[in-house]
Amino acid sequence: MGISEHYHPNLKVIVDGQQIPIEPNTGIDQGGCREGMRWIHVHDASDSGFTKLHIETPSKMNVPLGAFFEIWDREGGPKLMGPR
């Protein structure tokens, strides 16, 4: 199964007025993932204040932003899901 959809939205996360950096390679080199990447992932750090997300899916589908937050959380990112 190949990639049929591939697009790059930009993301900036600000919590309580502070920008939260997103680590390079978030969603990459994950055990159990086909080809080691999640459908939504980051390759490198931002230089514009925004992080470029890579969304690569086998068919046209809605990939909610919450899916990235779940991946980020599992890799040690900030706890953005649920009550704070």
Kindly state the percentage of residues in helix. 10-25%
- Helix and strand pattern: EEEEEEEH
In total, the number of strands is: 7
Low-confidence stretches: none
* Biggest beta sheet attributes: 3 strands, antiparallel
What would your notes on this structure say?
The protein is α+β, with helices and mostly antiparallel strands. Helix content is 12%, strand content 23%. The chain contains one helix and seven strands; from the N terminus they run E-E-E-E-E-E-E-H. The strands form three sheets. It has a three-stranded antiparallel beta sheet. The longest helix is centred in the last third of the chain and has 10 residues, at 65-74. The termini are far apart.
Secondary-structure blueprint:
Blueprint: E1 5-7, E2 10-11, E3 13-15, E4 18-20, E5 40-41, E6 51-52, E7 54-57, H1 65-74
Antiparallel strand pairs: 1-7, 2-6, 3-4, 5-7
What descriptive keywords fit this protein?
alpha+beta, two-stranded antiparallel ribbon, three-stranded antiparallel beta sheet, 12% helix, 1 helix, 84 residues
Structure, briefly:
By secondary structure, the protein is of the alpha+beta class. It is built from one helix and seven strands; from the N terminus they run βββββββα.
